[in-house]
Design brief:
alpha+beta, 4-stranded mixed β-sheet, 5 helices, single chain, about 150 residues, Sufe protein. Chain: A, binds zinc ion
Length: about 150
């Protein structure tokens, strides 16, 4: 990874870890799930409000490392206004990006700030931190009251 993108990666993650966006609970949620990453000790819960099949609001609560918190924060920012199909598609793209399974440049395009997580694939132990909120999101979208663990 080049120095520029490494700095951007750190800046964005530090910012979202310090002031997470949408860190709260939606009291009357249409979908919710909790996730746990035993490898690092990250916990996250995701609550979603739907308007038809559009994600009108999404929030998270949790405690964990900087990467898991920043990832959850950026995820909630990216999802508002997306349809359920678009949200699932974004999960697939993000997953491909951080696991390095897909072509980086192609995947990073159009992903905005989420693209900073492409650097995570260089740190295999951190991949689960970065994807925890997303796996939890997927469980929430697929079935209410889902529980996921990265193990
Ligand atoms: Zn972690």
């Amino acid at each position: 990874m080049m120095n520029d993108s490494m700095e951007l990666y750190q800046d964005v993650i530090l910012d979202h870890n310090k002031s997470p966006r949408n860190q709260r609970r939606i009291e009357v949620a249409d979908r919710k799930a909790v996730g746990y990453n035993p490898l690092c000790g990250d916990h996250v819960s995701v609550t979603i409000k739907l308007d038809g099949d559009v994600v009108s609001d999404v929030a998270f609560e949790g405690s964990g490392c900087a990467i898991s918190t920043a990832s959850a924060s950026l995820m909630t920012e990216s999802l508002k206004g997306k349809t359920l199909e678009e949200a699932k598609h974004l999960f697939e793209r993000f997953h491909g990006l951080v696991t390095g399974e897909t072509e980086q440049l192609e995947e990073a395009e159009g992903m905005g700030k989420l693209a900073v997580f492409s650097g995570v694939c260089n740190y295999p132990a951190r991949v689960k931190c970065a994807t925890l909120a997303w796996h939890t999101l997927k469980a929430a979208l697929e079935n209410d009251d889902g529980k996921v663990t990265t193990e």
